[in-house]
Amino acid sequence: MFGIDDAIAAGLKVLDKFVPDPGSKAKAEAELRDALMAWDAGQTRVNEAEASNPNVFVSGWRPFIGWTCGVAFAYHYVVQPLALFLAAVAGKVIELPAFSMESLLTVLLGLLGMGGLRTYEKIKGAAR
Predict the structure, then answer these.
(1) DSSP structure class, residue 125
(2) What is the C-alpha to C-alpha distance for residues 84 and 116, in angstroms, rounded to an integer?
(3) Can you spell out the DSSP letters for 83-101?
(4) Do residues 49 and 115 touch, judged by C-beta distance below 8 A?
(5) What is the residue extent of each domain of the chain?
(6) pTM, full prediction
């Protein structure tokens, strides 16, 4: 997964190329770390506010998507291969339903990205 440490490392690579002065580079690194940590803290506050909302349409989408994707991933990568293996050992040929993991990942990554954009809006004060 791509986390805050990965974002800092990527930003530091950019700084290495464009900021040759060690003093300026150290200051820019500190500012980058502070900005990314503030962004991460902002996302945490948003997550907490959404999770504490009594309206299931606000607080329920993350668990719903999480459980749906978790079940789908478990089926695709654990249950289905294990069932096919056990059927093969028993000398049977079975067909299990398959689904498009590409579609599942597109939905999941899109929703996660939208959550990041919403956090950006809140930090910039553009959100209500």
Answers:
(1) T
(2) 38
(3) HHHHHHHTT---------H
(4) no
(5) 1-54, 60-128
(6) 0.44
